[in-house]
Design goal:
Immunoglobulin-like, about 45% helix, about 650 residues, alpha+beta, disordered N terminus, 17 helices
Length: about 650
């Protein structure tokens, strides 16, 4: 049990969201022979679901039209203009006009006349823009090659123009993003699976294992039937929770959910919910669904067969809500903030852990004798989970405070709260505190005493954080070290040598504590200073509530060789995409991704800048550029490996010197 609870605390940190490059359209070319001297050039576009490619004929001030151009020469001539399919014509509110567009696929044809047998290839390009319901991509140009070899035809797949200065996509990057997405889903599944086992050890669920398994084995005609019914029961539990995850995804939308993590109201509301859940776990009151629900569902369980078993599983979910509800709620919100199918994967992991014991003990009833008897230890598990929920609640309140920059919950205050929570938990585990539903404690078990020692050690470990220690073990949870009453802490020396004098800071810059890195939060000012001093620039697309940004700043940046580059060899520009401060009067500009709307907040300005220039929308995202704003090396995202990150920095600086 102790290993389970500590593991749950360690792995409960938010999962990295690596940069995602949007590439929703693929072009291919082919030829159609009309006669010995005439051909039709065919360009076909295939689009991902939800994306629109616009017609060649779009009214002024509308979306970006699709346009073709060809490198004409003496070997052929164009006949007329490129034709296109019928497509769809609908009123587009964003542009306040009727617009023709294509979805799924589009085919364009250009007729040519061959004037010479020496013609082997016709070269051209297409410029286009694509949009979906959430955003648009900037104008993109793709090369088109139509190969003609003695009248034969070759189909050609094309990709985005590699010379486009805004295009940073590579096949390797796309594969990395796919791999990272898979890793993220696996992480969610594992965290949810561990959480399911934690819920399994609560008073609402654990006693149900022998009761349910015994029911199936006694009511079934033979052992095989009992095993089969118990397995069906377990599958029904999985189906119920997966349906819950599916509902969350369907209601809120797969792509919009990842915006929740930096939403102030979301973080405040969920902080309050977690506090209520924690207080319930500690024994102040019971959270239960209406008893009529359980009664109605339980009556359906008497029907027998598959339907009866399903309603038995539903009855378990309802009856155990007071214990599983807080855990399920936390998991759903954490998974939902990642977007996509994460809530479904999360519920699959959680329910699998709940269902697994029922199937195993039905197959091997003798194992039931090895289960510990229900008793006060189950309430102890529930109380421990209550303390963990209370600690995690302050992470959400901290997110809101960071976004609004209220400085109510600075680093020292956050750490002090955690010290108080885990110190009290250790005191409880040693039997010095008794809560409402605890049984009389005559002695402390070895397991409980050992867990108390671990929690006490963790509490003592956090104490130096009040004086500036980095606390790498929990770096994802507290606010960053610069968001602090004393950024350097008492007795905590500045990291790395050669600090800058505050009085000599360039206009618009500040020192990022505790690293003392000269940092700009405005792109234009940072660029101007870099050009003045002749140094390369690192753009740091970050967020105030970005967990992995904090991990990089606290675990990777302080390493001496990395810090030396950040302080002395580059100019750092940190752009916060979730900065909710309004843009100064007169600086509000029209959005290029959402025409007709103005960018009112600083964070929106930098978010759109990142999306348009680098086709990426997640943080952290690092770009090394020269004084002409050209990339020195391919951008990277979350890179916790110090050697890899240092090699990237070093290579970029070396390229600047060439």
């Amino acid at each position: 049990m102790k290993k389970l609870l500590i593991t749950l605390l360690v792995v409960a940190s938010s999962i990295a969201v690596k940069a995602q490059i949007l590439d929703p359209i693929k072009w291919s070319t082919s030829l159609e022979k009309i006669s010995e001297t005439e051909y039709v050039l065919i360009a076909e576009a295939k689009l991902e679901k939800g994306w629109h490619l616009y017609s060649q004929n779009v009214p002024d001030d509308g979306p970006i039209p699709t346009s073709f151009s060809f490198e004409t020469n003496e070997h052929f001539e164009l006949i007329g203009n490129a034709s296109e399919e019928e497509g769809h014509t609908e009123f587009e509110p964003a542009f306040d006009m009727k617009v023709k567009y294509f979805d799924t696929k589009a085919e364009f044809k250009q007729r040519i006349k061959i004037l010479s047998n020496e013609l082997s290839v016709v070269k051209g390009e297409v410029e286009f823009g694509v949009c979906n319901d959430m955003q648009c991509l900037p104008p993109t140009t793709v090369d088109l090659n139509f190969k003609i070899r003695e009248g034969s035809v070759e189909n050609n797949d094309t990709s985005a123009d590699k010379d486009n200065e805004n295009a940073t996509t590579t096949k390797e990057t796309q594969e990395d993003n796919k791999d990272e997405s898979k890793k993220g889903l696996w992480s969610i599944f594992i965290i949810a699976f561990i959480s399911g086992f934690a819920a399994l050890l609560t008073p609402c669920v654990f006693p149900m294992i022998p009761m349910t398994v015994s029911f199936f084995t006694k009511q079934s005609k033979n052992k095989a039937a009992g095993i089969r019914n118990a397995i069906i029961y377990g599958l029904a539990i999985i189906i119920i929770y997966v349906l819950l995850g599916t509902a969350v995804t369907a209601i809120f939308g797969a792509s919009a959910l990842n915006e929740l993590a930096t939403n102030v109201w979301f973080n405040v509301i969920f902080f309050l919910l977690l506090v209520v859940f924690a207080v319930s776990f500690l024994g102040a009151f019971e959270l239960t669904l209406p008893s009529s629900w359980a009664t109605k569902v339980d009556s359906q369980a008497d029907r027998g067969g598959f339907i009866g078993i399903f309603f038995m599983a539903l009855a378990l979910a309802i009856v155990s809500f007071s214990c599983t509800g807080p855990i399920v709620g936390y998991l759903l919100v954490e998974a939902a903030s990642k977007g996509g199918i994460a809530p479904i994967i999360g519920m699959l992991g959680f329910s699998s852990a709940i269902a697994l014991p029922f199937a195993l003990f039905a197959a091997f009833p003798g194992w039931l004798n090895s289960l510990p008897k229900s008793g006060g230890w189950l309430n102890t598990v529930k109380v421990v989970l209550g303390f963990l929920e209370l600690a995690l609640a302050f992470k959400f309140l901290s997110n809101a405070d960071l976004v609004l920059e209220l400085h109510w919950l600075e680093r020292e205050v956050f750490i002090a709260i955690w010290i108080a929570i885990f110190g009290t938990l250790a005191y409880y585990l040693f039997g010095k505190i008794q809560l409402p539903h605890d049984s009389p404690l005559t002695h402390i078990s070895v397991g409980r005493f050992s867990l108390g020692l671990i929690v006490l050690s963790f509490t003592i470990y956090m104490i130096p954080g009040l004086w500036g220690a980095p606390l790498n073990l929990i770096s994802a949870f507290p606010p960053p070290q610069h968001y602090s009453e004393s950024p350097y802490g008492v007795g905590f020396s500045k990291l790395g040598g050669g600090t800058a004098n505050h009085s000599e800071l360039p206009e618009g810059a500040h020192l990022m504590a505790p690293h003392d890195i000269i940092t700009f939060n405005d792109y234009d000012k940072g660029l101007a200073y870099a050009q003045k001093v002749g140094k390369p620039i690192m753009i740091d697309f970050t967020g105030k509530a970005c967990v992995n940004c904090r991990k990089m700043e606290q675990n990777v940046w302080p390493k001496e060789r990395v810090l030396n580059i950040l302080k002395h060899k580059i100019i750092l520009i940190s752009l916060y995409v979730d900065d909710k401060r309004p843009l100064p009067p007169g600086e509000e500009v029209e959005s290029k991704l959402e025409p007709g709307k103005k960018l009112k907040y600083i964070g929106k300005k930098w978010s759109e800048f990142q999306t348009i220039r680098y086709k990426a929308n997640t943080q952290p995202f690092y770009v090394l550029i020269d004084n002409n704003e050209e990339n020195l090396i391919d951008p990277i995202a979350y890179t916790p490996n110090v050697d890899e990150y240092y090699a990237w920095l070093k290579k970029g600086v070396e390229n600047f010197k060439k």
